[in-house]
Amino acid sequence: MKRFSLEVVVGLFMLIGFASFVYLSVKLGDVKIFNDKTYTVNARFGSVAGLKKGAAVDIAGVSIGRVADIVLNLETYEAMVTMQIQPEVKLQEDCIASIRTSGIIGDRYISILPGGSFDLIADGGEIFETESAINFEELLSKYIFEN
User: Fold this and answer.
1) 3-state DSSP call for residue 14?
2) Quick one: three-class SS letters along 24-50?
3) 78, exposed or middle or buried, with CB in 10 Å at 0-12, 13-18, 19+?
4) Per the confidence metrics, is the pTM higher than 0.90?
5) Cα 86 from Cα 98, distance rounded (Å)
6) Which of 40, 57, 94, 136 is least enclosed, having the fewest CB within 10 Å?
7) How far from the centroid of its chain's Cα atoms is residue 115's Cα?
8) What is the tens place of the pLDDT at every residue in 65-88?
9) Cβ neighbours of residue 67 under 8 Å, at least 6 residues apart?
10) What's the Cα-to-Cα distance from 110 to each of 3, 63, 89, 98, rounded to whole Å?
11) Which DSSP category does 104 fall into?
């Protein structure tokens, strides 16, 4: 009888440990188990150097969504970025999307500057005002070789 209760305690301990591991993996990996309701917004950029799928979309430093996809538009040779935005955040039609860097050598993310328009971007809509990523190598080479 004593051996049976010891096995039950060890089994429960293992289950609790495994459940804790799964919980931490999901939280630290920022994985969404249940599909949160979001809406899609697109933006075209001349360059998205360093921006990756899953990057944050921020307004005033607060995360409001994620980059869902990045594809090349074969007609205009611009990068089309698809973003998933939280439903409680409503973006104005005249907002500006910029690709920024967190820190000196940090990850790239999209920063959105809200506009003043009363018209809102609908699901599947597009942000027309964009600022591409700054290419530091290009800036450095211009500074070095043009003097």
Assistant:
1) helix
2) HHHHHCCCCCCCCCCEEEEEEECCCCC
3) middle
4) no
5) 18
6) 136
7) 20
8) 999 999 999 999 999 999 999 999
9) 51, 52, 53, 54, 55, 56, 57, 81, 82, 83, 110
10) 58, 10, 15, 6
11) S
